[in-house]
Specification:
About 50% of the residues lie in helices and about 20% in strands. It is of the alpha/beta class. It has two domains: about 110 residues, Rossmann fold (3-Layer(aba) Sandwich); about 70 residues, Winged helix-like DNA-binding domain superfamily/Winged helix DNA-binding domain (Arc Repressor Mutant, subunit A). A five-stranded parallel beta sheet has the order 2-1-3-6-7, sandwiched between helices. Helix 5 runs parallel beside helix 8. The protein is elongated, with a radius of gyration of 20 Å. Pfam families: HTH_64 (PF20714), Response_reg (PF00072). This is Transcriptional regulatory protein.
Length: about 230
């Protein structure tokens, strides 16, 4: 799994440190640098070439939205998530026009932060696996803002099924081999019991996201192994 490199551009030192700790808690992400002034941001983006920029809006030496415009007109391929205390609707409009991946309002709690990064990884991996595009695949990307970011809230999940945990398990199967995974293996990866993992796996079978095969050994009961459909 490729490590996604993150550059944090935030003038508040305590907030920058908190966001750095958040990033480091999410598997597959690494903080490649922290910038506290916009004057240093352009050089750092050019030097570090991050995959993702976590960008504040208000700085002592400028405005993050101006930097976003500059980033979009440069040769940088970095994606951007805005993290700001600003709540103006006009700013949200400008952020959408600037192509930001997500917009989080401070203070940001870890659960929301983790959700944003998890969604970004899923988006990044799908985009980088594409070779040719069909209209259906294009539609999936452009529906992300309405379906993916809000989809879990609109979906009625069975009791005991947490959307964030479900996303983690789906991401695991996106990376899994042709050998499939057992409930015990999935539980070990997500830090849960085999029983809990199996509950999620059986739910994914009911939605046709996974399929199950029985693997027979020399003795004992056959092992249930789960595969992505």
């Amino acid at each position: 799994m490729k490590t996604i490199e993150v550059l944090i551009i935030e003038d508040n030192l305590k907030v920058a440190k908190a966001h750095q700790l958040y990033v480091e808690k999410v598997p597959g992400f690494s903080v490649t640098g922290v910038v506290n002034l916009l004057a240093d941001a352009t050089h750092m983006v050019d030097a570090l070439k991050p995959d993702l920029v976590l960008l504040d809006v208000y700085f002592p030496d400028g405005n993050g939205m101006d930097f976003l415009d500059q980033l979009r007109t440069s040769h940088s391929n970095a994606d951007v998530i805005l993290i700001t205390a600003a709540k103006e609707v006009k700013l949200l409009h400008n952020a959408l026009r600037g192509g930001v991946f997500d917009y989080m309002i401070k203070p940001v709690f870890f659960e929301r932060f983790e959700e944003a990064l998890t969604k970004y990884r899923q988006h990044w991996e799908k985009l980088n696996k594409l070779k040719d595009m069909s209209q259906e695949e294009v539609d999936l990307f452009f529906q992300r803002a309405t379906d993916s970011s809000a989809g879990h809230k609109m979906h009625d999940f069975p009791k005991g099924i947490d959307p964030l945990t479900l996303d983690k398990i789906i991401a695991i199967f996106d990376e899994s081999s042709e050998k499939g995974l057992s409930a015990e293996e999935v539980g070990s990866i997500i830090g849960a019991s085999r029983t809990t993992a199996r509950k999620y796996l059986e739910y994914l079978i009911s939605t046709n996201a996974l399929k199950i095969e029985l693997e027979y050994g020399t003795i004992g009961r056959p092992e249930r192994r789960y595969f992505k459909v």
